[in-house]
Specification:
Blueprint: H1 2-9, H2 12-26, E1 28-36, E2 45-51, E3 56-58, E4 72-80, H3 81-87, H4 92-96, H5 103-108, H6 118-130, E5 131-150, E6 156-158, H7 162-175, E7 179-195, E8 198-204, E9 216-220, E10 222-225, E11 229-232, H8 239-260, E12 264-266, H9 273-282, E13 300-302, H10 310-327, H11 331-334, H12 344-354, H13 359-382, H14 388-397, H15 405-413, H16 431-446, H17 453-458, H18 465-476
Helix pairs in contact: 8-10, 14-15
């Protein structure tokens, strides 16, 4: 319930959809999680954002899809000068010195990341007058860390003062409470913020000591492991067929343009030299009028243009078919091959077979959604982004069993209850997919499967759907049965019959 609330208020459906599009085109798409204190200055609000895939640089030697083995992740963003100076007033003078830097100095400091053309340099200089390229470096540093564990509730606390922790253990041993200190090699998350080579801040445990995962989730269309990790977008395989398609189409257009004004055959002396020049200049234009000498009209003949080469048309069609085969976005996948006359079930089977070629892409996307769900879950459990009262209010709005704030906190954060995970799934948004799901449910209900009407209404696009769903759910609730009347009690005064 809490996860769905975060997803809805953060417009995560759109963010994740854009992340998928970035991955298909660029090879990688990024989602970031952050806590915004603008609307709620006490606890903050969790926000889910789509990141520019060209402005995030991760460890190139990371091998795991979830980036758990990545040593660092850089995020770059152009930030307003006044906002940055308000956040970091102590370095205001140092930031001001960046305005007069030369292009070479900016490249040395990392403000510019490639060799720009002169026009692009002018644009960058104009941007830098009002904005800074802010770089965030999130990195992990492994170190020996001590934890204080309550063996009864299995709560884990990061120890910052070992002497004080030992005193806690000694005092609680006399009270019979099982506290224990353990030391583990633990990755501590750090955040360094900089502009150029000026460090603005260096924070250890920026999201709290219990949360040490990167607040970034990545979607990879294709991830290839070699000496370094390589990523490839789905459109990359279509470059060559698209070039072939464009080339054949240009050749066919050139053929039509050249053959459309194929020329004229004029016998010598049939026209005055001025009229011949006019025919050369304007012979292909509509409405041109030329004069021919008397009796010599038959001496002028327009050259018949040759027909469009069918070879160009066939090669163009072959390139188009190649793109469909390579991308697996073909008539079988779409279920829209109008050349065949078959049942809807057969079309659905062919569509499912066509999806086999794109299955690895959607498997990676499902993995990304699972990582995103677990990351949000860990932030909720291990930070104070939601107060206990807020969590209770969210659960009550979803008609869950009423819990006290203490019970809610225990349900979320007490490890003695056990470990659990949350999987976030995508809901179909296209009318075709929704209609297909609705018709499948309706057909199954007509065949006798016990599908409640509220579920069918939920999958529909009916007007006033929400009201219908509530009414169906109310009807589906078990009704209280009247108390049975014993035979010996029938007819007695005051007893119901």
């Amino acid at each position: 319930s809490i996860m769905k609330y975060i997803y809805d208020v953060s417009y995560a459906d759109w963010r994740v959809s854009h992340c998928f599009m970035d991955g298909v085109i660029c090879g990688k798409g990024w989602i970031s999680l952050d806590i915004d204190y603008v609307s709620d200055p006490i606890n903050g609000d969790m926000i889910i954002s789509r990141e520019n895939p060209f402005m995030i640089l991760e460890d190139p030697y990371a091998r795991r899809y979830d980036l758990s083995d990545a040593s660092f992740i850089f995020r770059q963003v152009w930030t307003d000068m006044r906002e940055l100076e308000l956040h970091f007033p102590k370095v205001k003078n140092e930031l001001t010195t960046l305005e007069g830097l030369s292009v070479s100095d900016r490249q040395r400091m990392g403000i510019e990341t490639k060799d720009y053309s002169e026009e692009e340099r002018e644009i960058i200089r104009e941007i830098a007058k009002y904005r800074y390229l802010l770089k965030e470096c999130w990195y992990k540093e492994y170190e020996k860390t001590t934890f204080l564990i309550d063996r009864q509730s299995l709560t884990v606390e990061l120890v910052r003062d070992e002497d004080a922790a030992r005193q806690v253990v000694a005092l609680n041993e006399t009270a019979g409470t099982a506290f224990e200190l353990i030391t583990r090699i633990y990755p501590r998350l750090h955040l360094v913020t900089m502009v150029g080579d000026i460090v603005l801040q260096d924070i250890k445990d920026p999201l709290g000591g219990k949360f040490n995962d990167y607040p970034f989730v990545r979607f990879c269309n294709e991830m290839i492991l070699s000496d370094q990790t390589h990523y490839k977008g789905e459109v990359e395989d279509l470059f060559d067929p698209q070039d072939e398609h464009n080339k054949r189409r240009s050749q066919a257009l050139h053929h039509i343009n050249t053959s459309g004004n194929s020329g004229w055959i004029v016998e010598k002396g049939a026209m005055d030299p001025k009229e011949v020049k006019k025919l050369e200049r304007m012979g292909s234009k509509p409405g041109v009028v030329v004069q021919v000498k008397d009796g010599r009209r038959s001496s002028i003949e327009k050259i018949t243009p040759s027909q469009l080469s069918q070879g160009h048309v066939q090669l163009d069609q072959m390139a188009e078919d190649d793109m469909k085969k390579i991308s697996n976005v073909n008539a079988d996948m779409l279920g829209a091959d109008k050349t065949r006359s078959e049942s809807g079930i057969a079309m659905e089977i062919r569509r499912a077979q066509g999806l086999v070629g794109t299955e690895p892409i959607f498997d990676n996307f499902s993995y990304t959604e699972r990582i995103l769900g677990n990351t949000i879950l860990n932030i909720v459990r291990h930070t104070d982004v939601f107060s206990e009262q807020e969590l209770v209010a969210i659960a009550e709005e979803s008609q869950f069993t009423k819990l006290t704030p203490e019970e809610m906190s225990m349900a979320l954060k007490d490890r003695s209850i056990g470990k659990y995970s949350v999987v976030l799934g995508s809901r179909p948004s296209s009318p075709t997919a929704r209609l297909s799901n609705f018709m499948t449910l309706l057909d199954a209900a007509q065949k006798g499967l016990p599908i409640p009407p509220s579920m069918i209404a939920e999958a529909s696009d009916w007007p006033n759907k929400e009201e219908l769903v509530e009414r169906f759910k109310a009807q589906e609730q078990p009704q209280p049965q009247p108390a049975p009347v014993l035979p010996e009690m029938q007819g007695q005064p005051g007893m119901p019959i």
